[in-house]
Write a structure and sequence with these properties.
Length: about 180
Amino acid sequence: MNATKACALWSCAAALLAGCSSTPLNTPATAPAPVAQQSPTPAAEAAPQPAAASTVATVALPEYLDPKSPISANRSVYFDFDEFSIKPEYNPLIERHGEYLSSHAPLAIKIEGNADERGSAEYNLALGHKRAQAVLNALKIYGVKETQMEAISWGKERPRAPGHDEAAWAQNRRADLTYPSQ
């Protein structure tokens, strides 16, 4: 066998063995031809990249559902013993709710009158109703439609404070503005 045939035989054997190998061969890959780069212009460098679009939907809570809103945080008008007239200190609260409700005509609320535990059940139901009605009438001054409000009384059935002293009774003599939960 001459040297040329031996070299060809060895080349074929090497190629066959390389094809059966489980490890890749370290053969240099042909690099693509270099692309001519243009130098960036100052305007191209300063151009901002577009931000990725957010897929998260933002939801705006109505004020009456937002716990940080004064409409949501302050909803009770407190009364003196055996009284149903609104104290002047609650005028800003009534005004805030009145303006909000008059600008949101489809929204309807309940005004729930409450009384402390002293007095008969019938008396406290009547007193709670008078307190709720007083708040309803005050809200009408700010343009709230009567169809948006309902005055009800719980009497002494829903106390806020469980005690049997003046501090507890003072918290239970109230009218609560109750908005829908959704």
